[in-house]
Amino acid sequence: MYAFTYQKPKTVAEAAAALAADGDAKVVSGGQTLIPTLKQRLAAPSALVDLGSIEGLAGITVAGDTVTIGAMTKHAAVAHSAEVQGAIPALAALAEGIGDPQVRNRGTIGGSIANHDPAADYPAGCLGLGATIVTSKRELSADDFFTGMFSTALEDDELVTAVRFPKPKRAAYAKFPNPASRYAIVGVFVADTASGIRVAVTGAGGGVFRATELEAALTAKGFAAGSLDGVTVSSDGLNSDIHASAEYRAHLITVMAKRAVAAAG
Amino acid sequence: MPDAPMTYQIGASVKRREDLRFLTGKGNYTDDINRPGQLYAYLLRSPMAHAEIVSIDTTAAKAMAGVRAVFTGADMAADGVGGLPCGWQIHSKDGSPMVEPPHPALAVGRVRHVGDTVAVVIADTLAQAKDAAEALEVEYKALSAVATTTEATVDGAPLVWEDAKNNICYDWHIGDKAAVDAAFASAAQVATIDLVNNRLIPNAMEPRAALGDFNPATGEHTLITTSQNPHVIRLLMGAFVLKIPEHKLRVLAPDVGGGFGSKIYHYAEEAICTWAAAKLKRPVKWTAERTESFMTDAHGRDHVTHAELAMDAEGRFLALRVSTLANMGAYLSTFAPAVPTYLYATLLAGVYKTPAIYAEVKAVFTNTTPVDAYRGAGRPEATFLLERLVDEAARVSGIDRAEIRRRNFIPADAYPYQTPVALQYDSGDYAGCLDAALKAADYDGFAARKAASEAAGKLRGIGLSTYLEACGIAPSAVVGSLGARAGLFEVGKIRVHPTGSVTVFTGTHSHGQGHETTFAQVVADALGVGIDSVEIVHGDTANVPFGMGTYGSRSLAVGGSAIVKACDKIIAKARKIAAHLLEAAESDIEFKDGLFKVAGTDRQKSLPEISLAAYVPHNYPIDELEPGLEETAFYDPKNFTYPGGTHICEVEVDPETGVTKVVKFTAVDDVGRVINPMIVEGQIHGGVAQGIGQALLEQCVYDDSGQLLTGSMMDYCMPRADDLPSFHVENHTTLCTHNPLGVKGCGEVGAIGSPPAVMNAVVDALKGYGVTHMDMPATPEKVWRAIQAGTRS
Fold it and tell me: Domain range for residue B273?
């Protein structure tokens, strides 16, 4: 780990100001990606801005058809929340499948989506459910928020403060984990929402994306696993590594989508 | 004193006495130990697989805060430090000795694998050492690298060592080629297989560490290290590398968190820390980070093999012909040359009475981490080959897989049985193990389970492995004639204290095996004392006589035998003391359950009474007998021991994703007499878990340029609890005939027997798609592709 200064602001505004003042500062929320990266000397931020002391950033509220999860809410809190389990069980199940118990009790939803690891689970949940990302400056649709591998629409001094999930008619997440890391080789979140059927894919590409072929098939033929029979996803642009080729990932997208649709009921 | 009924410990599942300290954080591992004034070493390692070191500029690094020294290979050479020695010499077919390249602790002139040591920075803190390592300016000139076993011998391949033509270290053979060729010429049918035994990375839970110290006032050097065999390290490092005589070099291996073979060898960091500590007159500690473990702990397996089995019309095995390429990596690790030869090809008879066997093995250098013994060491490679080939023979001949094995088993009345590849088996009951396993696994009910799986959209397969291994290494004269540069006896020393409690010193080393419990059980029964009166000491060359350590499932068979012999000496001396105290003839003294009794009378003395007399020799046969009650025994085994058994695995394959799950696993093992059934079962569990890991999950991958792609847990898949079913484990015991306890060894059988059982099950599950073989690991994509390529019959 290289030396850095450490700041622990009390408000979002202070945190944003700290980031604005230092272009090489990094935000730390749960630290489940950043701390190992620092320990391996793969990152050398000048300062860490720790969000842990800002009040009001953690917590879950359900109002009407909207579930709002504060950015500093830990994965375990989402997984074990009776309100989330009642409103969007697929989201609670997704959170329960992230990493291991240690990660789930440190990692946060805001940290996960701001990092946008291309194999992370939460981006699929956000995009699949058509969530709204609330930041220190504005509100963004998930479609606009995730812009590519490890990149988002966030500006340098902008923080995620909460995520608002509209309650879907039904939804499910099916993950094919990397046997070693347990990150998603392919994770597919399907949701039958008020604004249409959405299929979001993580792990397979350079970042989370919507599988429009699958959405079209489910919309045209109905929200049933059988509607995806024979529907293939192109392997163009998908990841290929020692764990899975692009072709295999493309195949798995359809398989996992079918399983998610079947699980959503 | 009335005779208390004695509770015998052998055969009891005594809870592991060491677990209290391990499970409550009270272990004492190398990295837990800190000495006053201690400095920290950080190794700069090669980022390239093969390169010339054009220059190393240490000026900036040496000037940095807290830096006490920066050393390179040139500094060690200038001090006359020798290279890391290889402990086994193999000769090629033509009689020439193997190519044995130098192995400097810090690279000189050239780096030969990613992770090779380039320089060491020693500083007040680890962070300072790391900072300074980044300031080291090393100019490399990249060279072409060869990373895979098969490419190493291709003409024109980059040479790891100039004097190893086609990168061949040795070209060795064993067996009767003419007899084998003749048998093939008359064979009714032949089964053929080409397979790879996948390269593994050991990953002990505790990473390697070393702490060197030097006392200028006494001239004594100390090394505390994560070793399975501290005396071997003292011998190798003292005699060959640092030239420190034994009496001035103490090596301690305190609690060690797993080894699996990877902590047998003498590693560069041990020599560097010991040498630097003497140079700087300050303790120097190094602890591997996990990535360093991946890059520098000796890897395992990595064979490429072609084999053929000749049969008569009834499926009786006539001859076996094997040709193997074995990867040594860039340097010869301590026991590397022995693994694919005398620990591999000598096992090719397995449990079968194949009359003629010929094997040739070429060992090759590559620009990869050295490869050496890893849990099973050669025997898993032999077993995987043989048991896959026997399944192929069943397929070719149309004979049931259990039946073809049974038809070729060495019968239970054939012992001692001389194989065509040097070994002489003393005992076993392979058919008995197979029968017990078939019954326990409900082999006959498989069809119904398969139908149920298929109804749920899954493929199901069942696989057998009837394995044998040779362990309890080893008769010194035998291994010496085969190229070992060491003996493989073991030592045990028993110290009965004045009031009758007992300290046992063993040259073996426990790093997960539970010796503190098992050995105490053996001694408690031998001397008739309570187990709580027995303490086991290991891992310190200053306290324990010269012993060879723990590997090759030898600790109980060899080390336990030495302890039994030492107990015998204690009893023999105690008998003389008892005769004196009881005023009886020595021949009239009977010893049972800790009491020395005059036969036919009620006159007796207990061991504590005798030990007190031995240390307070007021009434004592002082003219004939020395005071004290302490005895040492060295035991050199007469033969290897030969555990064997049957493993049966059932897998379910999801044809949509290719995911293979082990759903049922049955192990019936003959490990000889079982001292502690719970510990034995635990050893089998661990071994089987590692075997399933090799079969389904684990694979070390280098890219073409020699970069290690599986350098962390993110990419190298270790088996986890949710990858495994509950195991059914049974013992089917025949006793070893040549050691006093009748024990054989249980540390490696799980990892030896299980991989072919798993892969035979996978192939069985996929046979409907025309699959007849699959190399390990059976990853989801590999299985899915096989299904895609196959045509469902």
Answer: 36-143+205-258+263-296
User: Which residue among B589, B619, B635 closes a domain?
Assistant: B635
Q: Name the phi and psi angles at A118, rounded to 5.
A: -65, -10
DSSP B419: -
Nearest CA in chain B to A186: B657
- Residue in chain A nearest B709 by alpha carbon: A242
Which of B605, B635, B665 is at the close of a domain?
A: B635
The rounded distance, in Å, linking the Cα atoms of A132 and A153 is 13
Q: Does the distance separating the beta carbons of A245 and B784 come in below 8 Å?
A: no
B373 with B339, same domain? yes
pLDDT digits (tens, 9 = 90+) for B259-308: 999 999 999 999 999 999 999 999 999 999 999 999 999 999 999 999 99
Give A194→chain B minimum CA distance, Å. Answer: 31
Contacts of A243 in chain B (CB under 8 A): 715, 779, 781
Residue B283 lies in a domain: yes
Nearest chain A CA: its distance from B718 CA (Å): 7
C-alpha dihedral over B478, B483, B486, B490, to 10 degrees? -30
3-class SS string, B584-626: CCHHHEEEECCEEEECCCCCEEEHHHHHHHHHCCCCCCCCCCC
Beta strands in A3-154 (DSSP E): 5-7, 25-28, 47-50, 60-63, 66-70, 132-135, 139-141, 146-148, 151-152
Domain count, chain B: 3
| Residue in chain B lying closest to A249 (CA) | B781
B424 and B502 in a single domain? The answer is: no
Encode chain A (265 residues) as per-residue pLDDT tens digits.
899 999 999 999 999 999 999 999 999 999 999 999 999 999 999 999 999 999 999 999 999 999 999 999 999 999 999 999 999 999 999 999 999 999 999 999 999 999 999 999 999 999 999 999 999 999 999 999 999 999 999 999 999 999 999 999 999 999 999 999 999 999 999 999 999 999 999 999 999 999 999 999 999 999 999 999 999 999 999 999 999 999 999 999 999 999 999 999 8
CATH number, domain at B508? 3.30.365.10
Q: Based on the fold, state whether residues B587 and B527 are members of the same structural domain.
A: yes
CB-nearest partner of B781 from A1, A40, A248: A248
User: CA torsion, points B625, B626, B630, B635, in degrees to nearest 10?
Assistant: -60
Residue B539 falls within a domain, yes or no? Answer: yes
Residues of chain B in Cβ contact (below 8 Å) with chain A:
127, 130, 291, 656-657, 697, 701, 709-710, 713-718, 723, 779-781, 784-785
Is B657–A252 a contact, with Cβ atoms under 8 angstroms apart? yes
Residue in B137, B134, B138, B142 with CA at minimum distance from that of residue B48: B142
Judged by CB atoms closer than 8 Å, whether chains meet at B697 and A179 is answered as yes
Domains of chain A: 5-50 (3.30.43.10), 60-264 (3.30.465.10)
The answer to whether the Cβ–Cβ distance between B697 and A255 falls below 8 Å is: no
Distance from CA of B720 to the nearest CA of A (A): 9
Same-domain status, B314 and B394:
yes
**Interface probe, candidates B458, B701, B715, chain A, greatest A C-beta count within 10 A:** B715
